[in-house]
Specification:
Blueprint lengths: L11 H7 L1 H7 L1 H9 L1 E5 L3 H12 L4 E6 L23 H10 L6 E6 L9 H4 L4 E4 L4 H14 L3 E7 L2 E7 L20 H5 L5 H16 L15 E3 L8 E2 L2 H8 L1 H19 L15 H6 L22 H22 L9 H17 L7 H8 L7 H19 L7 E10 L2 E7 L14 E6 L6 H12 L6 E4 L2 E5 L7 H11 L13 E6 L4 E9 L6 H6 L6 E4 L19 H6 L60
The structure holds adenosine-5'-triphosphate and zinc ion (ZN).
Length: 644
Amino acid sequence: MTGNSNSNGGDNSNQNERFSHLIETLGLNLFQKIQKAKILVVGAGGIGCELLKNLILSGFINIEIIDLDTIDLSNLNRQFLFRKHHIGMSKSKIAREAVLKYNPSANIVAHHGDIKSQEFGPQYFKQFDLVMNALDNLSARRHVNRVCLSADVPLVESGTAGYLGQLTVIKKGDTECFECVPTEAPKQFAVCTIRSNPSAPIHCIVWAKMLFGRLFGVADDSNAVTDMDDNIVEGTEEQNNIVRDLQLAVEKDKGYGQWVYHKVFYTDIDRLARMKEMWKEKKPPQPRLLADIDQELDNNTAEHINTAQLKDQKVWGFKENVRVFLETLAQLKQRFEKDGALSWDKDDDMALNFVVSASNIRSHIFGITTKSKFDVKSMAGNIIPAIATTNAVIGGLIVMNAINIIDGRLKDCKSIFLIEQPSNKRMLLVSEIPKPNTACYVCQKNFITIKLNTNTVKVGQLIHDILKKHLAFSLPMLTVGNDLLYESGDEDLSKEEIRARDALEQKVLSSYRMGDNVILAVEDYLQDFKVSILINHVESFGTEEENKKKEHEKWFEIVGTATAAAPFQTQPIQSITTTATAYNAVTDIDDLEIIEPTPTTPTPTTTTTTTTTTTSGKKRKEIESAPGSEDSDGSKKQKYETIE
Ligand SMILES: Nc1ncnc2c1ncn2[C@@H]1O[C@H](COP(=O)(O)OP(=O)(O)OP(=O)(O)O)[C@@H](O)[C@H]1O
Ligand SMILES: [Zn+2]
């Protein structure tokens, strides 16, 4: 779907009058280059709105906008081109209408569509002098990176996450590409930290979500926080020296709430506290009997302090947490019995209250700071604040790089990082754009190795989990020698062929010509990208024990995507975050429980002074994370919400 372009094109004398101040600043020559330039903006969200406004006000008049989304209430706090009555309408089209008001004679085309779809292939990209990404997910960014490399069109890449922002320029052959330095996957916490040795509120929050799954969801290994009936607190069956918590049965008789409370906050904690070697260096957890709590006064007065605070920003006292825990437990149990397994949802108030109270009780027991409902919601829901000012700063800097590119001064373009705390009184770190990584499989050598068990891994897993999800192919086509083994996309295939392909996806690789040492050619015509993949058979990765610890069993390894020549050092420095952060924080966390970004610092080769405004008007953005959802293919739409 394409929005109308404006037929006026651009009457020169009018334009010159409107932009007299710009002509004065930039010079007529550069101004004319800007007016001639044809640019593509991908994404009309937080960054996109700022960027489009800046582009128009900077004299750009030939612009195409692509966005696949419609306007949501929660966008309105920062995507200022949109108003309430636009909710449900196409972002790209409304953005076009809004910025046309700044310059009615601009020539703007709006596409409501997915940048990864067939209509926007390399041929489409070739018409532009410059592409600007204002996206929110890695898979679309990697896709645009590849298409821009193929079409040899410069790309300004950018991202924001909370107070952090970054941007850079990608130009085939001259700079590193988006995939020259692989974006690091966010880390997950070790299971033992969650189950036995928490030291931060987030550990208790994750535990509480697991407990929710254990009690009201489908019990599986991932939520095995406790065995409800097990009352052993010390000793082993073999040695016949078992000590039991006999109170558990008594509490069970009293009711469901008492039973669960006693089990997870007394029996289990008692057992942990008895493991002396664990508590040599720190205070052991304190089991808490319900009966004792009933007696004591709630001396945590935090909830009474600041009456001006919003309700959800108060930190509940211990007794209040216990009360809410027992209450929600009873309510959730009723729901569970009526509706069957529940899945945790941060927008389900009852489920949220359960996690808030359970995590706070656990925090209390382990001597960890307790949190408000507001905080727990953002931590448990993987919510990353979307801050209007961050987008505004990045949106402005993008245009500065864009003007350099249009003026043929690629050498003046910089990689820029907006950081959270001033470093040497600066909020912006500016560095030369790194050269291409000679080992990059995308822009340089087009060769990688994949290690896996060819006798157990199926064709479908190779296609969907490895090629699409990890290597960001949109429509991979596989050939060995001259033989076509697999074709993606349904458009050119008959129903029969699609059915045959589905059956093929169930075959293991070795039974379908993809055994050890085979070189596969994988091509994506949408991205105009081709890579050779050497298949290496391995029986297994690590021992079963090791795999258990990692939570997710490792079943393949990609060699040749992550390589040295990284432009940024990785010395942890407080308050400065990795290059990857602003790009992936809002993307790849979908199928992760928690994120724990590794702080690293970019090391600018040259640093120039730039000033910026500080952030205000903090708003929050929530990332709806459906378990097991697959951002990396970009197919899942993320929704955002404002929490007041
Ligand atoms: N494959 C895609 N094709 C077209 N548009 C896309 C695609 N993937 C994401 N987008 C769009 O990119 C936009 C990203 O904007 P969004 O506001 O989510 O993030 P942002 O611009 O990075 O800023 P912030 O995270 O601060 O809000 C969204 O409007 C989204 O619809
Ligand atoms: Zn590269």
